[in-house]
Here is the input.
Amino acid sequence: LEAVGIKTVPTGIDHGTITAVIEAGPIEVTTLREDLETDGRHAEVGFTDDWAKDAGRRDLTMNALYLSFNGQVFDPLGTGLSDAQSGLVRFAGDAKTRIEEDYLRLLRYFRFAAKYARQPFEPATLAVCQALAPELTRLSGERVQTELFKLLKNQNPLPTVQQLNQLDILQSFWPQQDLQYFTRYLTASADLDIEPALRLRAWLGNDQTLLKNTAARLKLSSLHKSQLLDPL
Here is the structure.
């Protein structure tokens, strides 16, 4: 890249990632990797030239697709492209194994479902997610907040939030909620700018103790904290 005059930033060089800065915007470039060791929060990675190994460490099948410069799609897992085209969000390989490599993938599964799913949730995957949900406490509040806010930014997160609530996936952060107000709020604010903290406020209701505890646990910024705590 530097040889052809493209600026690079070593954003994640230890994990094989750099950012190429071009006129159209920054582009992350990452070499093929394989997991050497995982602890449910972070992974020690090694570099490889094996596409299948790199694909095998991805979280979801639709995230294990590769594109050549001439537009050819490579699908080492064999189902990533068809899953993406049909709106089937599922883990790459065994769901339990993928989640135990990084528990944040549990939330990422639902975040991708909120945006891309056009197929029903797979019961076996939901059962795994429900069983492993208590492990979310091992994650930092910032990482949990990022995934939840990305989920809530979707045009219609209601079906996914309903599934999360029904399974009590976020039991470690807050109890199951009555989603009637959340449903009404989404309808009333459908044409407004999407503010995830305000949507979370509608999700959690009016219990100020719960709201303050949630703001602290998710490490919310001053702006997001005020949005969460102020009356709607």
